[in-house]
Amino acid sequence: MDSWYHAPGEIVLSIWLKEVEVIYDPFNIMSHVIKESAKLVYKPSPDEVEH
Predict the structure, then answer these.
(1) How many CA atoms lie within 13 A of 51 on its CB side?
(2) Which pLDDT score is estimated for 13?
(3) Residue partners of 8: CB distance under 8 A and separation at least 6
(4) pTM (2 d.p.)
């Protein structure tokens, strides 16, 4: 379990939010962010890969 707290304006789409389960969001702030984050695809560039 992980918890973090941010103001609504600080929340951005992230690859790390792909499979997040929001437990408590009474104002439904996170649903759009979670839904759009699920569409993100991370593809490393050749410079990011170590041989």
Answers:
(1) 2
(2) 92
(3) 29
(4) 0.66
pLDDT (tens digit, 9 = 90+) per residue, 19-48? 888 888 899 988 899 999 999 999 888 888
> Concatenated DSSP letters for 1-51?
-------GGG----GGGTT---S--TT--SHHHHHHHTT------GGG---
Answer for the pair 34, 22: CB distance below 8 angstroms, yes or no.
yes
CA 29 centroid distance within chain = 13
